[in-house]
Amino acid sequence: MSSHAATIDHHHDVTTSTGIPNKKLFMWAFLASDCMFFGALISTHLIYRLHPPPGSPSPQKIFSIELTSFSTFILLMSSLLMALAVNAIQKSHIKSTRHNLLGTIFFGLIFLGCQVYEFTHFVHEKGLTLSNSLFGSTFYTLTGTHGCHVAIGVLWLILMYIRSFKPADAEAGRPWLAVAFFHFLTFVVTIVAGMATVLGYFHARQLHEPLGQFVGQNLLAVGTSIVGLAILAFLGRSRVPVEFGEANAIDVESMGLYWHFVDIVWIVIFTAVYLLEYL
To answer: For the chain, how many structural domains are there in total?
Structure first.
């Protein structure tokens, strides 16, 4: 194992003319194009904010900077877990890789839950929609596009996590598709129940409802979330030899590049869209 690990270079690939693995080179090219895409959306929003049309809503009366700051912190912490997952897979620590991938998924879903609640609150409580003002159009287009990127990243993380359970033995790998489907189904049910729990909690906080009343009204969602997490934790204890290992580090690293990019973009959005309104 040590001699095999010594032959793997996670930063260079001698089989390519550039010395950079093709997967990583492709990811960098994609992220470069995405930089221009987000740059156009952010610039458009800032230009219209500098010259707002008459009757534009006041962002300070709409935004909840506390909630957005919390979701920003959560997303930044997910980058730490993603970096730990990359480091773990480079050392063939599969169990640690799975734990950090699960943590990244969990934090990414909290961020999405906060964004869904924020959008719902803005539409129903503040009256800000996609079509009733120029500010709403640029705001929802920009932050919604970023939210789609986070959702895609979460789906990618889930598939990578499930991929880590593929058995190394060909005979044991035959029913693996059924096991993978069960993993994915468990994730879907847990995510739906978890999102319902998060949204219900934020709604209860807004109405100043006691915690016991919140649990009673959302007992099914809370119970399903706990059971789903328990099943995922139990499945993660599998000790069957797997095909996933140090050779797959470039796959996790490419996914990490995407996730870090999404986090960096959100820092720019949080500063340009939210914080500048309070200066």
So the answer is: 1
Would you say residue 13 lies in a domain? Answer: no
Structural domain containing residue 56 = 21-278
Question: Residue 58 falls within a domain, yes or no?
Answer: yes
Q: Confirm whether 7 is domain-assigned.
A: no
Residue 188 lies in a domain: yes
Encoded tokens for 137: 């159009």
Spatial CB neighbours of 38, under 8 Å, sequence gap ≥ 6: 142, 145, 146, 265, 268, 269
Between helix 22-50 and helix 249-269 the angle, nearest 10°, is 10
Per-residue pLDDT tens listing for the chain (279 residues): 334 444 566 666 656 767 677 888 889 999 999 999 999 999 999 998 888 888 778 888 888 888 899 999 999 999 999 999 999 998 888 888 988 999 999 899 989 988 988 998 888 888 888 888 888 889 999 999 999 999 999 999 998 998 888 877 655 555 777 777 888 888 888 888 888 887 777 777 777 777 777 777 778 888 888 888 888 877 777 677 778 878 888 899 999 999 999 999 999 999 999 988 877
